Amino acid sequence: MRGLSSKESDYSDMNIPLTSAHDHNSSNSSIGHSRYPPDSSYEFAGPNASASSTPFAATAPRRTATHKPPSAFANFLANFTGGSSANQEGIRIIHLNSPESNAQEKYLHNRISTSKYNYFTFLPKFLYEQFSKYANIFFLFTACIQQIDGVSPTSRFTTAVPLALVLFATAIKEVMEDLGAQLRNTNWIYGVVIFTGHESKLMRNASATPIKRTSVEKMTNVQIIFLFGILLAMSLASAIGNMVITNNNIEQLKYIGLQKSTMSDFGLNILTFLILYNNLIPISLMVTMEVVKFYQAQLINSDLDMYYEKTDTSALARTSSLVEELGQIEYIFSDKTGTLTCNEMEFRQCSIAGLAYSDVVEEGKQARVEDGMEVGVHDFKQLDANLRNHPTSNVINEFLTLLAVCHTVIPERQENNPSQIIYQASSPDEGALVEGAALMGYQFTTRRPRSVNIMVGQNDLEYEILNVCEFNSTRKRMSTIVRGPDRRIKLYCKGADTVILERLGSENEFVDATMQHLEDYATEGLRTLCVAMREIPEHEYQNWVQIYDRAATTIQNRGEELDKAAELIEQNLFLLGATAIEDKLQDGVPEAIHTLQQAGIKVWVLTGDRQETAINIGYSCKLIQEDMSLIICNEQTHWETKEFLENKVKTIKSTYQRGDDIEPLALIIDGKSLGFALEKDIEKIFLELAVLCKAVVCCRVSPLQKALVVKLVKRNLKAILLAIGDGANDVSMIQAAHVGVGISGLEGLQAARSADFAISQFRFLKKLLLVHGAWSYQRLSKLILFSFYKNICLYTTQFWYAFYNGFSGQTVYESWTISLYNVALTVLPPLTLGIFDQYVSARMLDRYPQMYMLGQKSEFFNVKTFWGWAINAIYHSVIIFFAVAFIFKNDLIMTNGNIGGAWVMSVTLYTAVLATVLWKAALITDLWTKYAYISVPGSMIFWMGFFPVFAVVGAKIGLTPEYFGIVGPIYGQPVFWLTIILLPLLCNLRDYTFKYVKRTFLPRTYHYVQEIQKLNIPDYRPRMERFRKAVHKVRNIQRLRRNRGFAFSQNESGTAHLIRAYDTTAQKPLG
Amino acid sequence: MDHEPPKHRPPNTSFKQQRLKAWQPILTAKSVLPTFFIMGILFAPLGGLLVWRNNKVTEFSFDYTDCLSATNPAGTEVPASTFVHSSPVGPFPKPIYVISPVNVRVPAQAGGGPFNYAVDRCTVTFNLPVDLQPPVMLYYKLTNFYQNHRKYTKSLDYKQLAGEASTREDIRGRKGCPLESGELIYPCGLIANSLFNDTFSTLRTVASETAPTGENYTFQDTGIAWSSDKGKYGKYGYTDLSTIYIPENWRRRYPGPPYTYSADFPPPNVETDEHFQVWMRTAGWPTFLKPYGRNDQTVFKAGQYQMDIDMNFPITTYGGRKHVVITTLGATGGRNNFLGIGFIVAAILSAGLGIIFTAFHIAKPRIIGDHSKISFGGEATSHTRSPNRDDAGGNRIRSRYEDD
Prior knowledge:
The complex is a heterodimer. Chain A is α/β, with parallel strands linked by helices. In chain A, strands 7-4-3-16-15-14-13-12-11-10 form a 10-stranded mixed β-sheet, sandwiched between helices. In chain A, helix 28 (764-802) runs antiparallel to helix 30 (828-836), helix 33 runs antiparallel to helix 34 (901-924) and helix 34 runs antiparallel to helix 35. The radius of gyration of chain A is 37 Å and the shape is elongated. By secondary structure, chain B is α+β, with helices and mostly antiparallel strands. In chain B, strands 2, 4, 5, 7, 8 and 10 form a 6-stranded antiparallel β-sheet that branches. A 5-stranded antiparallel β-sheet of chain B has the order 3-1-11-6-9. In chain B, 36% of the residues are buried. The interface between A and B is large, with 123 and 118 residues. Chain B: Belongs to the CDC50/LEM3 family.
């Protein structure tokens, strides 16, 4: 149920309406499924309910009764839930006013919660989740073995404490993020579903949400495993070294009191070295990543550029775990209606009797007389005038009558304002036409099974509906045969221009003018329909209706028979004119799609629309461009589809092999062919063809097919996919893709709820991907690389030191100081890099969409960069360690003649490493905000200031006895200061030089863009763009002569009889 | 009602809109080339200064490990490879040493009889070619001795050393010292047990042809440990010394068995014993120096001197060597040119890179922010390429786009 809340709704309220329910309810105390009181208000509960427009609210009116579902639904529910006893028979009997009897039925309780945790489950659930990460398990393991006596080279709690801190920080973040639902206020409650709880649709959908991990995360995990391998190798090598040295020099080393090393010593030594080197894998990386992603998500939520004023909605990152994935999208799968378009059809123009009318007349196109001919466009006021006194007024009358009568729309009167009619149309085009007619004064008011009423001026005219020849995709038209108030029989027909023109009589004076107008409309991207009629003599009708009735009662091939029958009467038509409807695109959609394509993202549109409509929209939203050649796949069988696709692939490939350029391609495939194309033996060929095309449009696809297409691509390509949609039918696709984006618009919230990100306009996708995604990917890449770098740099020094201490596992640093490195001193730079860094500004990313390809190609974070950084870290650690080993050779004679000893060297080495990694952080910081200053030089200053306090207090309380009295001697040594100046600069000289060399001699696009941004160099492209636009327009006209869409988006056959069964004069069940 | 202020409008702050004021440095020639030269200009003189000052430090050292086998009464020359004298003077004779067995007499503290033990005494005769300005330091240097071994470094009991009369149970609880034999040892632990116990005598001046007369030169054994170290140690807290055992390696120089302390032969006072304190501040490397004595007042005059070294410390059984190191002190302490050379190397590298890149820059400067180098949408089109197609085709498509 849409908007149904969890904890907020007070379920005890629900008992109140029940107590005052209808008499027959209370007297029966239970309601059988066959007994629906026709006047009682009810709603079929469950999944069906949410599909209807009926709202649901907590403010229950008093007359609400609750019913068990109708049997069909009950069966459905039973299939769905299986187990519980009450459901076995598919019937739920709910006893009103009798909690005791209800209790006996053992229904599910009513409570649902959409939040992830509650007070009791938090701890176990959270811990389970955290320890399912390799890194955390590893650190837990480390913390445990540190408790074993004599194994750990460092203090006991030096892993446990940071791990606890890290988990604590993650826990806080989790609590702050924890996905509960809100109850929305609505005016009416039509029914309530009770005793379903977790069986309600909200929960069913929610529970299906798959766990998504980003490719950066997966990649990180793989590298962690590799690093762990290296760690093991280092530990093993050290343990072997220990064994060799101990056993070969057992006599010489007797002052250490060593026993002959046994295999169990060897095992323990491996553990010792594992602990010693464990932070090769950065303990704080996971939590830093989570915190950074959380902030990045907040920044997405608070972006004013993605805030939609009209609905007061900002973008919403529903999960922060996928933000960087937004920077690596290669394919977008988009729904059309409601996503690219507003799903609002507007009756914009029409051509009646060769005269063009429009709601808004463009400057310079006003109607005038040239060479005795009326040319140009009239406005709708003129239409009104012409209806009264113009030679063509009769045609206008028939035209408008046709629009008001020939359709499958249901008029619905507002309860509080009966003069207001709302048209419920299964096809928004039809709705727009009927509304258009109403606007011109031909108001459709009533539908009865055998007739419709329209108000023309003050006259209420009744048209008897004799027959309806339905629309389908082969007919491309629909006709209605009516008997008018004057008892004459008329056939009204509307349809695609091609099919109408074929069926016109010989005397049709308006054809040329209408065709001209149709072309104009198509150029403007409007959806057009031709409108024609014929008066049918009574005897012809009587003859025909027999044929029709026979066809209607045929058992086999009824559809074809009906089509044939319709064909007999739909001829010799008189063309009245044409309509032009605008399927309004959302603001900025063409620009957004164009930009996304420039960014190297392929956009596939998956729509339930008909092929022509889809192509038309494809053109108007710039998905398909004038220079593309279209491959239209419209096959009827498996083999035809296969052959078609194979041929196309072969042709394209051979063209490429000849070295010829071919036009960019667009593939249009309809639902039926797609069904075949998705079968096992064809899917690869289909995919091969599809990836060769710049744009792909799948029309008439079912929700399932949408998901299948996404899954097909996901399975076979390494690309990262994004699906965007607004309706419930997009949910499966959204969940199948790596990243799901929901349009939080008018079409309910199912899509937005199951999505990872919700935005209110398609165009916001541009900023979401090109700016937030690109930033996030680049930031995360830097963060991860730097985190590994800093830890590898520090911890490999431990390994070098092992060569100097007989592989004894002695730590070169004091153990709490090491912990400090991970939880304090090098925590801020990754955070600021992750939250604030911008390698180029948002404006530049928007101006140069091709920068997005850096993310698609994983330029910033891949196996190569990872190991490049790792090797660099080792290089730095080698320089620092061995330089210190030489500087502190023989333990360093200090200025006063005393000897420094182990710990002076240790602190100097540590400070040098810290300074080196902070210099490196400075080098990779592209944007120096105040936070960057705080975190990079700030961390160094903090350490220099904190160390004296730490050393003095630590030694006093027995935490760090090694540091007793160490501050004065260290800070008093010139060698200390000179070392921490020289080594970091010497190390980073390579990095600095490489960075310069890359920019100067091997520049990439982003280098130039950074310079353009920095120097504020103006862009010379606007002039070029204007030229391009002019060319575009010319080509536009050319191609539209080839392809023209027409407006019919309703479902195929089978609805007309349902619509006709409708009687709007019968009173509706009261709400 | 109609015009409620928007509730969900995000705040327009520079933080939330990611428009924080910031500096955006770019590594272009203009900013990078000067930094290369600046680093060169700053580091070269600094390195030079360090090397110059460091070379003023005079270091004099030799290896005396093999003195044990130097039975030739005329003296044996120290091994040439281990003899270091850093002052730029002409050739002069290497130190010679000779070994002789002696008895050391240890007087009793509380009126008992003295204790004698035999020791090999190494008498070293050496020439000091130049005067050494005070302060002059005397160090011993050990090699291949793992004071930084994990099992060794932590083998001590801080409380016992601070003067607490720790019981066997206390020590066992604190896990610092091994208590295998069950004896309560003071000072316990591997570090104390392996205390360096060679002794160096005052330097006696020896008449020679170049310097017929001279003065003896004495090194004090105070001021060799860190002044702060005194705070760590206290006089032993035990009263019944007969229950306190002597560390195993020390016993040769004590009467026994039983090897317990007594009023006559009490434990050392670690609070004042700087040799002990120096030893307890463990080394970071297996080769290390430890101060033995210092002279802050007197000039160590050039001349010939003789020094007796009692060879108690069995370094050869540990697989290491021992040296005597006599040195003056410089601006950064002892003689070590690495830092100065490091600065000079960094300066040369940096300035060298600066020169190379400046040459490149002058020969072929790169245009900054060159629009023509950015391909507009070209790469997007290249996606229509067939996967098995070579790059030439891709470029063709791209160039077509750029013509647009």
